[in-house]
Write a structure and sequence with these properties.
This protein is an alpha/beta fold. It has 18 helices and 17 strands. The strands form 5 sheets. It has a 5-stranded mixed beta sheet with strand order 3-2-1-4-5, sandwiched between helices. The protein is globular and about 75 Å long. The two termini are 45 Å apart. Belongs to the KAE1 / TsaD family. This is tRNA N6-adenosine threonylcarbamoyltransferase, mitochondrial. It comes from Teratosphaeria destructans. Keywords: Acyltransferase, Metal-binding, Mitochondrion, Transferase, tRNA processing.
Amino acid sequence: MALRPWMLRCSQNNVRSIRSLPSWQRHFTSHSSWSDDEASRDHDRRAKRQTGLVVLAIETSCDDTSVAILERQEHTKHINRSSPRAAGDRHGLSHAHKVIFHEKITANNDAYNGIHPLVALESHRSNLSGLVQRALKQLRSHDQPLKELVKDDRCSIREAQADSPNDYENAPQRTPDLVAVTRGPGMRSNLAVGLDTAKGLAVAWDVPLVGVHHMQAHALTPRLVHALESSPAASNAEREGVGLHPKFPFMSVLVSGGHTLLIDSRGLTDHALVAETQDIAIGDCLDKAARVILPATMLKAPFGRALEQFAFHTSISATTQADSLRAETQNVVSQAGPSAPPVSVDQFEPSTGYDYKPPATRQDELEYRPTQWGWSLGPPLSESNGREKSSRRMMFSFAGLLSFVERIIKYEVGPQGNPTTEPRSFVDMQERQTMAREVQRVAFEHLASRIMLFLESRPDWAGNTVVVSGGVASSRFLRHLFRSVLDARGYKHIKLSFPPVELCTDNALMIAWAGLEMFNAGYTSDLSIGPIRKWSLDPKADDGGILGAEGWLQNGHTERSAHR
């Protein structure tokens, strides 16, 4: 049933800000009116409702407890009958998306200099229910009964009551139409907390459940941001047939404390593995490097961010160790580095504030860069065959880089630039700062090198975008370095797509979006599904990738897989 005219007038006057959301989310948040549909809250009514679809999402894969509510609204759109797409557009609908709620609570692991599994688990158990409760309260205030919409007296109560007294008095409170939850990969016990809660909500509301692949959600995050950016303009991009960006195929660089993946993302569930780490993840490497490089007074979680802030602080000088330890942590944070690039951009110019010269060739990429202290950090996987450096293996390795940093902090450096067995008594602040810069440069250039190898080996690749997502993608220096390397190597036409910093780390909003994309493609999950500790993205992997996991339903029917 169509909305009444007075409803439309009321909804236009019912715009309230959501103060708990970050500013970039507040920009995408507005309020809508109720449909006057008085049918019961059954599944079929939800699927047909004109106001669209509401997704509640839960993320508990590691130490972040996060809940989000995302709404997809449907709008009738003008169809240009002369367009070649018009013949296939039978419904004449466009979609606009908005964030209703998004909050995250991170477990306090400060005492352990890392993530303690039991502390993270207890944090999920203590905080998840409260976050869900706050989310539902926000949904109710977002979708108030119709009589609440006219309290400001800018819509006529008399007109509303005369138009439809039953709609006015008995408008129901809305509940989500879909529940999305991280199923894996991650810590099994932590995943189980979120998964069990999500199952209970799906049963209570009689709505579908989607168990989301965590890394797939990271890869799709720029598409979420594009959908949100399109919403204030009433989905102009979709109306013109442009669709979501980035389009498949695109390259995904997924970098975090637990993963380092280079993926050829060819479709929603088709992500071919190009390279992965053979030892530790890049985020783990940088976190542990920060713990040995930074003075104790400047070390705080997240450690990777602290490492970057320390590395590009502009006023560190060679002082005595006692003086350096008196430096104020808050000053390091407030004065760190050049300003951040714009959020959710496809292409931006490199900053001039880093004094960084990208390698112009593959040979330059493999060269050591000696420092004034005699040591240099060698690029990973840069073994030599005689005089010719020959490593072109499509993999990553960060354990050797971390080990070398730990040794040059602990031991004196010999004439050849290698650590000796003689303990070091002192490392001044300038050397520590140089070390912080160099470990990031070498690690990030190692990432970029595999992007270059992929592009050079695939001149026929149909994509033009590199998505960089995960916690490490929040690094400003990483963004600068990637753009600089691509430009220097002749790939200025390749776009870089980074999510906003708030969406680089684990969050439920990306889970909501991935769940919505899977639901739109006809996929839901059986209530019997369990958490998955390790779960590949690649359909050719031993486990069958995303769809290889048990419990998928496609269009209401069990999805069969040969990888069971």
